[in-house]
Amino acid sequence: MLPEQNETALERALEKAAKIICTLQWGRCPVQEQNFPGCPSVCHEDIVPWQCWVAYLRSTAVAA
Q1: What is the C-alpha to C-alpha distance for residues 62 and 56, in angstroms, rounded to an integer?
Q2: Are 50 and 34 in contact (CB under 8 A)?
Q3: CB atoms within 10 A of CB 55
Q4: pTM for this one?
Q5: Closest by alpha carbon to 53, among 24, 15, 9?
Q6: pLDDT score for 14
Q7: Mean pLDDT score of the chain, rounded to an integer?
Q8: What is the pLDDT of residues 19-50, one digit of tens each?
Q9: Half-sphere exposure of 4 (CA within 13 A, CB side)
Q10: Contact at 8 Å (CB) between 31 and 43?
Q11: Nearest C-alpha neighbor of 15 from the set 48, 63, 46, 64
Q12: Cα–Cα distance between 47 and 64 in angstroms, integer?
């Protein structure tokens, strides 16, 4: 698999995981979760909750 194909596959997997997590959390943004360390991006009305989960998961991966 080419690096750009791998990157695309990882992005799709991350988006799918974020949507599943969001659904399991009844559409809540991670900022509403207990012990959430802080929002990884600026939130505004055009961002849907699963996009916040993607940003949160990305920040978690970078910190690891």
Answers
A1: 10
A2: no
A3: 19
A4: 0.70
A5: 15
A6: 92
A7: 79
A8: 998 888 887 777 776 656 666 667 777 778 88
A9: 0
A10: yes
A11: 48
A12: 25
Q: Is the dihedral of CA 38, 45, 15, 4 positive or negative?
A: negative
Residue 12 banded pLDDT, cuts 50, 70, 90:
very high
Neighbours of 21 (CB within 10 A): 17
DSSP track, 23-48: HHTTT--GGGSTT----SS---TT--
Task: Render 9-27 in DSSP notation, one character per residue.
Answer: HHHHHHHHHHHHHHHHTTT
Q: Which residue, among 49, 27, 32, 31, has the nearest Cα to 40 in the 3D structure?
A: 31
Residue that has been written with the tokens 């909750």 in this structure: 49
> CA 63, CA 17: separation in Å to the nearest integer?
18
